[in-house]
Amino acid sequence: MSEPERIELLLAELRSRELDRLLVGAGTNLRYLTGFTGSNGLAIVDASEREEHRFFTDFRYDTQSAEQIPAPFEREIAPADLLEAAVRALGAGGGRGRGVGFDDAAMSVKQHERLRELLDDDWELVACGGVVEQLREIKGPREIQAIRAASELADEALRTILQAGLTGRTERAVAIDLELALRRLGAQAPSFPSIVASGEHGALPHAEPRDVTIARDVLVTIDWGAYLDGYCSDCTRTYATGAVSQEAEATYQLVLDAQEAALAALRPGVSGREVDRVARELIEAAGHGERFGHGVGHGVGMDIHEAPRLSRTAPVQPLRAGNVVTVEPGVYLPGRLGVRIEDLAVVRDGGCELLTALPKDLTVVDG
Predict the structure, then answer these.
(1) Residue 347 maps to which CATH number?
(2) 53-88 burial by CB neighbour count: b if 16+ within 10 A, else e?
(3) Are residues 208 and 130 in the same domain?
(4) What's the pTM?
């Protein structure tokens, strides 16, 4: 789906809310609607009959914005405050003044006060946080292909690292080498700081890699992803560095069973809560319910964490075909070990399609 097609969907939503304009600030939503990748931009999406969409940036992005901004937007290089330029355009636009939507989740209190100060009284400011994010939940074929490409690159990067082994290297060294491998294979960046956690350190779900040597006969959890051409990937695998304990093997099998069950439940029409429940009930039945404290998954796209969520507290709404989500149960035993297994999947009619392809049987990676 192209940026102009996304604008058309957004216009329909704004009109259903009886809004004349929507302000979209710099960040992922602006990139989604316009393709602009700079750090300072502001757009007005015009849902009135005139449909005079405007884009504002500063002189640093004159050439870049000329290349990136699609035809529906009239582009302006603003000499000062972008909000001031946008308000001037609103005043000159001849709209009825029913309402201007803004992202209340992203706009600061100071910016809101400034906007209210600049606007004429006949304009009503209307909170619209989430209106663009709702569109972003459903990925089109081009987006899914971009995420698949990021996932394939990330898989290849980890294969390269595992060939050198894990034992005797520090967690931090493995993480650095992994992120270098991502970049050498073409990623613009890792999609988040890589996690490499061995032994008892694996009991921390978001462990930071340490300058600690990875020992033999322990589990090592690696959580990593690639940022490629505007889209993210996300995957986790847990490996053994030799003969691990029966407790470690049993915990691994439990998490794998829970993950496979949740993937089998992933389809349009079920809610994120239901998918979470499938994995959680298996882990609870094994006596480890209190050691699985996070949700079973989240959306992935232009951002590493997007809607929809798969958790106990997720909104009660059905998943839809085109959602791209992680499925990542884990069990964390403080002072002993941790296991997490994560795949990235597209919700398809009748089931799901995996975008991550590395094997999930407990694999021994030696030094």
Answers:
(1) 3.90.230.10
(2) bbbbbbeebeeebeebbbebbebbebeeebbebbbe
(3) no
(4) 0.94
